[in-house]
Design goal:
Elements (H helix, E strand, L loop, with lengths): L2 H13 L8 H20 L3 H17 L8 H22 L3 H17 L5 H17 L6 H24 L6 H23 L8 H10 L3 H4 L9 H16 L10 H26 L7 H6 L11 H21 L21 H14 L6 H22 L7 H9 L4 H29 L3 H17 L5 H19 L3 H25 L8 H24 L6 H25 L11 H23 L10 H23 L6 H13 L5 H20 L20
Helix pairs in contact: 1-18, 2-3, 2-7, 2-19, 3-4, 3-6, 3-7, 3-20, 4-5, 4-6, 4-7, 5-6, 5-16, 6-17, 8-9, 8-11, 8-12, 11-14, 11-24, 12-14, 16-17, 16-21, 17-18, 17-21, 18-20, 18-21, 19-20, 20-21, 22-23, 22-24, 22-25, 24-27, 25-26, 25-27, 26-27
Length: about 700
Amino acid sequence: MTWSSALKKTARSGLTVERAELTPLIAVRGTVGVALVIGFCLWRGDPTLAVSSAFGAFAAGTVTFQRSWRPRPVLALAVAGGLALSTFLGYLAAAHLLAFLLLLAGWTFLAGLAWAIGPISGLVGTQTVSIMLVTVTLPTSVLGALEHAALIAFGGLIQATLIIVFPVRPWGVQRDALADALAAEADYARRLRHDPVAPFDPQPLMDARLASAVTPRQAKRRPVQLHGPRGIAEQIRPVLASLADPVVGAPLEGPERDRTRDLLGAAAAVLDAVAHAIRHDRPVRLTPETMATLEVPPSGPLLTGAARRSAYRLIALLADAVESSDEPVESTRPTAEPERHLLRPSVPRLIPGALRSVHRELRRSSRILRHALRVSAVASAGYLLGTVLPFGHGYWVPLAAVMVMRPDFGQTYSRGVARFCGTLVGVTIGGALMALFHPGIYVAAALAVCCVLLMYLLMHTGLSVTTACVAAYVVFLLGIAGAGWEQTVLERVVLTLVGGLLAMAAYALFPTWETPRLRRRLAEWLDANGRYALAVFELHARPAERRPRQVRDALLDSRAARAAWEESVERAEKEPVRHRGLSRSSATAATTALTTMGRVAMILEAHLPKKDAEPSVGATAFAYELRESLERATQAVVDREELDWSELRAVWERWDAEDESQGVALRGADLLLDALDDLAHALSRGPGGRNRAARGRLGSSSR
């Protein structure tokens, strides 16, 4: 992609306004927190203090709208604590330019590294830098600095208190995550009716797993409906795939396929009903037609073999899903043993893990480290530039740059465009209102609170919209402090533009491109998928040595690797960088091949033999060779070499010749080889017009 195309694409992305579900009660609650802090400071007779202290409640309220599985009061308090600390340290160094620059550079560097912990931590770090830049422009003493820091922390405490006193839909985020996972499986079941090998995005299941992690304190209060359905959903997915698959499950045509379609449709209806019940705290409602479909027909079961086993397993799991989510919502189960929960560590116990995450990023190739260095340099240079420019409020230059910058190209440039356009609209509207009506202090405060309400209400519609609300909010806040609207509008627009251009230039001069890393990300996904397939084949080879935890861990690693690959591809598609050894078409084909590979392993997991079954010599040999071939293939993907699965194919052919039963494991191995051949074919399309011999798909007739 050329630079012009990349800039156009990121600009459109930044200016996109999406329709989003509004949460008016939550928006009102957060706005009340900001209004209380502003009102308290105005009651004390200090408009300037009201301007600075309002940022604490504002930022604490903003972060509670982010998608996080942490309790909202904890988020508000954590943000307020970080803001208070950065404010106090900033005040101590503000009197000396060199000292403040050193503090700003170091603090911004640490804030940039916070992205290694997670997006919420990165956002909080960015907020602390912004508050350091804004509040230290107000002269004060050390005692005054303590007072400012205390008021900012007080704003977060107010927000946390309001969340506790006026809860809005408790456990709503966790309910939505679980309901989304069940709804995604319902959609999957419907698509399987028409496409027996339809793909499935595991992201909803990953989100549901993250949302289900609780602290021991939360485990005592978690509603019944959030206890069991996630585990059942994890078990239903492979059963759906194995039932619909034309090789392992029912044939493509005939009465068995008709019965399979009916079962898949009924499963979709049940999963949708359970999702609706969990999302809205209601009992499960099923139609008589759905209940009748899930019963064995009077003429007897129509399915045979592996398809019949999958059908019975599916019916049992659906019954468990309904039973586990169809209890009174207000009741709770007795506290279970800690091992039965996905435990979420408390905030103090997060510190060692956070430090390890940061330490892993302290390497030259890390995009997080490069982002931290980049944003630190830009903040320092922007602050110096803002002091030199003949405007005032020079801190807006580094503030705009820091709020725009993210670890990847697409977000940085799209946010830069959105922030400038939103600022232009916001300061124009705010300045016009100030010019036409000349509001007093209390009217300006009321207008600022209205802007906060609009921003919270429209939080998820788009950055340009929220930036416009924030820009108008700042105009009214400065009106409280007595700043002229004409100067405010001109400064805000010009300095925001300068800060955005500085951020974009910094990324262009010191970039972190994702495109060259695609092959390594693909190799990591292949390795994770391979370990998952190996864990399943080893259970087929030696049933007596069953280790379900090993299969589960391998599946989770495979999902994480897939998510990392898809995230990398999404970033790379927005970059003005040519592919290096992996074109877009090759990446798409490789994604399809590895998705199929994961689906085959999942189907085999649904048909694991019993513990007392006889060991399989063919599966043992296949698993051994698969391990060896995967090690070579993973390195070959990184080194841009041809993938060779001929030895693995030879082992399968010997297994096929010796095994008369033609069991599920043998047929699954054939499908796995097809997927691996597809991967080799996808990666054989070299860059720059180099012609490579395309590897044919072997065994395609078995699909």
